[in-house]
């Protein structure tokens, strides 16, 4: 894991600062303006007390240090700091700060600061008679192209879709090193980061429309610097995403087998030979559109993601509970849709005409300490029928390399723990190691 080893040489104080920035997206003592108005969010000058945050983080870390948790002290520190920030700031505060730097600027600045080759493409939306409200203009998505350090000339492309409840842009201190490590693990020749519309301005299904357009573009158009003057083959595309990014990838996979009325059918993918993604990796995917699962109560003190935050995300995303692309584990047709996307293993007597899975291999990670734990288990265990691995030993982690469809559970880890680990330069978390080994094996 060379990429992470390089990161881990940073001074502890710098790593903590990066996590602090990740948690609040560049806090100063006061923010008086926010770019672009937002729906249903009242914005006002934000003042917070950093001493209160530090004090709360210290007491949280101290209590975690004496518990029986299997987490490394850096992981405990990251969760304690984010919990302190969330207790000090309400969602409106966090929203105001998040808009200081949107995804495009965050990726571009990160690449500049780290000497990485960067380019971007604005993707035109394909013509389609949509069921979406014609009065709302769907903005064109942007693909941010990053060439990882020491990237091979010939290899797959990694498309990364960031999380943030569809409300927050990419958080470079955590998302970028995690995405780059994923790219290094699968020896990707290029990392592509999708910039999609945020729910404060554009609700569901805008993001799905953009995702379909972006992936179709990759299949039909040559990207700058590519070795071929044509679009890529599905077998050369790997997708990875965290939280809401995992939801958006899941929505795309369901659109393949159950085309939505909002975007053109994804005929480039079907599960047939030559029309399958090489692999998909979802880190703590946000799959439920409610906050009633028992894990929201059971893990409220363990995770930094609260039911209150998720309620805000849901309200602004405006999902339709009857549509599987919005509610991928709770819609009435969710079971059948996922069975179509990842059919049960074929028997020796099965017809060869039966299609295979949309992706050849898939990994779903979840922390046992996260509030979304129950929904991740329902998704991976019940709907995907994936092999389940509890990552309580190095031997269990190593088993991900032999699985085609696998759900991993990391004891005590919080929501998107690998992204937090990446912000602190910690390379040895259970989920982080599982993602690394899985991608190395695809």
From TrEMBL:
Domain Alpha/beta hydrolase fold-3 positions: 158-352
GO molecular function (one): hydrolase activity
Keywords, comma-separated and alphabetical: Hydrolase
Protein name, per record: Lipase/thioesterase
Organism: Beauveria bassiana (strain ARSEF 2860) (White muscardine disease fungus)
């Amino acid at each position: 894991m060379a990429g992470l080893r390089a990161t881990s040489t940073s001074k502890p104080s710098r790593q903590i600062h990066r996590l602090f920035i990740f948690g609040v997206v560049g806090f100063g003592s006061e923010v008086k303006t926010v770019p672009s108005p937002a729906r249903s969010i009242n914005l006002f000058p934000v003042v917070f007390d950093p001493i209160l945050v530090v004090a709360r983080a210290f007491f949280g870390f101290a209590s975690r240090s004496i518990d029986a948790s299997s987490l490394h002290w850096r992981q405990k520190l990251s969760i304690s700091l984010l919990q302190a920030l969330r207790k000090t700031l309400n969602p409106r505060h966090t929203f105001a700060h998040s808009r200081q730097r949107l995804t495009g600027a965050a990726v571009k600045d990160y690449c500049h600061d780290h000497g990485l080759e960067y380019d971007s493409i604005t993707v035109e939306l394909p013509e389609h008679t949509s069921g979406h409200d014609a009065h709302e203009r769907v903005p064109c998505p942007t693909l941010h192209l990053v060439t990882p350090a020491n990237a091979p000339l010939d290899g797959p492309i990694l498309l990364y879709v960031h999380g943030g409840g569809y409300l927050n842009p990419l958080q470079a201190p955590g998302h970028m090193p995690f995405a780059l490590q994923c790219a290094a693990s699968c020896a990707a020749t290029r990392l592509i980061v999708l910039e999609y519309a945020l729910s404060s301005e554009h609700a569901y299904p805008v993001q799905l429309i953009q995702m379909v357009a972006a992936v179709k573009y990759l299949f039909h158009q040559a990207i700058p610097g590519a070795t071929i003057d044509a679009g890529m083959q599905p077998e050369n595309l790997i997708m990875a995403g965290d939280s809401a990014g995992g939801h958006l990838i899941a929505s795309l996979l369901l659109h393949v087998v159950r085309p939505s009325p909002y975007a053109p059918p994804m005929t480039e993918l079907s599960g047939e030979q030559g029309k399958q993604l090489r692999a998909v990796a979802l880190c703590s995917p946000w799959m439920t559109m409610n906050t009633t699962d028992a894990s929201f109560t059971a893990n409220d003190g363990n995770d930094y993601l609260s039911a209150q935050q998720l309620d805000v995300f849901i309200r602004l995303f405006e999902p339709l509970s009857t549509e599987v692309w919005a509610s991928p584990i709770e819609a009435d047709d969710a079971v059948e849709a996922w069975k179509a996307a990842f059919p049960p293993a074929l028997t020796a007597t099965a017809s060869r005409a039966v299609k295979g899975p949309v992706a050849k291999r898939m990994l779903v990670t979840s922390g046992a300490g996260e509030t979304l734990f129950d929904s991740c288990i329902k998704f991976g265990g019940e709907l995907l029928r994936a092999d389940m691995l509890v990552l309580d030993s190095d031997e269990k982690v190593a088993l991900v390399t032999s699985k085609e469809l696998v759900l991993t559970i990391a004891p005590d880890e919080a929501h998107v723990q690998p992204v937090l680990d990446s912000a602190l330069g910690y390379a040895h978390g259970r989920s982080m190691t599982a993602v690394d080994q899985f991608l190395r094996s695809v």
